[in-house]
Known about the structure:
Layout: E1 7-12, E2 20-33, E3 36-44, H1 50-71
Antiparallel strand pairs: 1-2, 2-3
Amino acid sequence: MCYPERPVIAALHVLDARPMPLMGMVLSCEYTGDGVHRVVVAMTAYQPRRSLELWLEEVGREFQRSAKRLRG
């Protein structure tokens, strides 16, 4: 769940690649049932910051650890 007019940052991760940050402003958030929400986001340009870069590095490491656990 997100609140309208709040900024949001997500990391889009493709296997064997560096996470790509997506930034935007929440336009709406609706509960659609079964714990699922539909969120509409107006995308904005990524503004690099050291704290975001550190977060992306950690997201990438965690993704790699999860992938290794799934492979056995």
